[in-house]
Design a protein that fits this description.
- The protein is of the alpha/beta class and 382 residues long.
- The protein has helices spanning 18-34, 45-51, 95-98, 118-122, 154-163, 165-174, 195-203, 219-225, 252-261, 271-279, 294-306, 312-326, 332-340, 342-356, 362-378, and strands at residues 6-11, 37-42, 61-64, 67-71, 84-88, 106-110, 126-129, 132-137, 183-187, 209-214, 236-239, 242-247, 264-268, 283-286.
- Helix content is 41%, strand content 19%.
- The strands form two sheets. Strands 3-4-2-1-5-6-8-7 form an eight-stranded mixed beta sheet, covered by helices on one side.
- It starts with 5 loop residues before the first strand and ends with a helix.
Length: 382
Amino acid sequence: MAIDKTWDIFCKIVDNFGDIGICWRLAKQLRSEHQLTIRLYIDDLHIANQLIPAIDTSLEQQSIEGISIIAWHADTKFQPAAPVVIESFACELPPNYLNTMQPSTVWINLDYLSAESWVDDFHAKSSKRGALTRHFFFPGFTPSTGGLLREYDIVKEQQSLDKAAAHQQDFWQSLGLAPSPNVKVSLFCYPHAPISALLSAMAQSSLPISCYVPASSILSSVAEFFGQSTLQIGDTLTKQNLTLHVIPFLSQSDYDKLLGCCDINFVRGEDSWIRAIWAGKPFIWQPYLQTEQTHIKKLHAFLDLFYADCAATTKAATFNLHNAWLSEQIPAGIWQDYLSQLNPLNAYNRQQSNALAQQTDLSTKLVIFSEKIIKNIFGNKV
């Protein structure tokens, strides 16, 4: 029996960039490292175009980097389901696609990343929907979970960048900037964050700060802090010890370079959070806002796990700044305490990045998981 190595991935973009960011990286890795044929269904090509500039939003179907990208809307005429279907983040497969699925279809609901302890128990559980079986796949930080999205060479690449001044200079020049001797901070966050409070704390820093802000929905808050009506890509603003640069919204590969070139990275959601881990640099994570304070539970679960072996003073500075970033106030002292811990934080984050990179990655675990199910169904016929 010939093996059909086609996978379908469904992506519904609900929080701007996180969903498509994860799905696009996953699709590329499954194709390049596992030689799979990938059809990626996306419900909003216009937002996806910001991360995948090659997308032609007028086309119903197109191939980019060897991946078939298909516009997903109410009138989409679906091809028969692939042998393996990834339903990302409970996006709900359309009924007319479900009708093409077979009892043997490996249907995987890829959930959001969490460090909460319950993930270990719920990972790889399944439920029936008629003749179909839906498997629940939970990414996570322990070997008992679905792992973390990681290309085989990303950690090596990021650490090489950290030591390559010439490559860093090329990156800054590509943005029209000169390399800065200051503490370099990238800022990517949700609009409800206390942005003015953070910028004020940076301005009062004992060390000069260069802050790099990709053009996004937070620019109005940044403009307000500097007393400007609007900001544009290429603008540079200064206040006390803070110099802020507005840079373009970057492709995924360039964003990875930004994380690797900066000393501190403010990240949000899931995609940029994972990439900050692989950059091996100090970072502050802003989880997606949820009801009943669920996002705070997720944050503390991660901090407890990731910084479990961190020195007490360094851990306290990290926890304090994370908690302040979730509140409305960031006292200059909390920011200054974090700056004072940059050296031990840098060493610790590098150590954690290397340790997590020893675990089996998410895409490989998905392939192993699906192959096991297929073998259980068809036995020696495959």
